[in-house]
Design goal:
about 260 residues, mainly alpha, AhpD-like
């Protein structure tokens, strides 16, 4: 699998500029233009951006870095390119490494679709170029992989084969060989962060049936119950209340079955 290393454009959205107040001079100019648009079209949206949205990023349940990972995963999953330039920059400002942002895009090609990842690649290209981020700062295409969790894979692979081997043998094969024995073992993202962006993307795109497995995996990988709860809160704003309320019963069931 070849790593995507090319990523377009730098445009900062007004509402999110208020959310953290970290933007370049060009971002300030765009912020003022967008603020004017908000005032002319939806003044209440301006009010909510200054209030609840800004406060969201200050909540203690997740670090700013985690909030950035959750948010960019949601944008990629929903192919919402308008806000990507600001949030890619914000993620880098919040401690997400260029190699990690690159790897999030690569990972979500498999969980949100190749075209969504290609759109994110195009958006991130200018962000990287403007910040002087070159190929030497990005993950290699074929790194030395992390060790495979033999016990977890011995449980997962036979179940998937039994359930779906006769339905879509190719999907089962790629799931094992490409996803769980390659993609998930790439070292540029920790297992926790890889799970974090996967769960965020699933919730943001309404893939409720997949949340149980991946939320359990995320918590096995170190995501705490309180952090998972705050992921849902963050996504209510960036993926919409209906997607989050669809995920809440699933998350509740997962929480109740796990030890405190």
């Amino acid at each position: 699998m070849k790593l995507m290393t090319v990523m377009i454009a730098a445009l900062f959205l007004f509402s999110t500029s208020w959310a953290q107040g970290q933007h370049t001079q060009s971002g300030r100019t765009e912020s003022m233009q967008t603020a004017s648009n908000f005032t002319k079209v939806a003044p209440a949206l301006e009010k909510y951006a200054r209030g609840p949205l800004a406060e969201l990023w200050k909540r203690p349940g997740l670090t700013p870095r985690d909030r950035s990972l959750v948010t960019i995963a949601a944008l990629i999953a929903r192919n919402q390119t308008v806000e990507m330039p600001y949030y890619f920059d914000l993620a880098l400002n919040n401690g997400v490494k260029a190699s990690e942002l690159s790897e999030v895009i690569t990972h979500l090609a498999f969980y949100s679709g190749w075209s969504n990842a290609a759109s994110a690649v195009a958006i991130a290209k200018d962000v990287f170029e403007r910040r002087g981020i070159g190929p030497d700062q990005l993950p290699p295409a074929s790194p030395e992989l992390l060790p495979l969790n033999e016990d977890a894979e011995a449980d997962r692979a036979p179940r998937v084969e039994q359930d779906f081997g006769k339905v879509a043998a190719g999907v089962v094969q790629y799931t094992t060989d490409l996803l769980f024995r390659d993609l998930w073992l790439r070292p540029a993202l920790t297992p926790r962060d890889r799970s974090l962006v996967t769960v965020s993307a699933l919730i943001a795109s309404g893939q409720v049936a997949q949340i149980t497995y991946h939320l359990n995996r995320a918590m096995d990988n170190g995501l705490t119950k309180s952090q998972a709860s705050e992921v849902l809160t963050q996504l209510a704003f960036y993926a919409g209340w209906p997607n989050v309320f669809s995920a809440l019963p699933v998350a509740k069931a997962v929480f109740e079955k796990r030890p405190d």
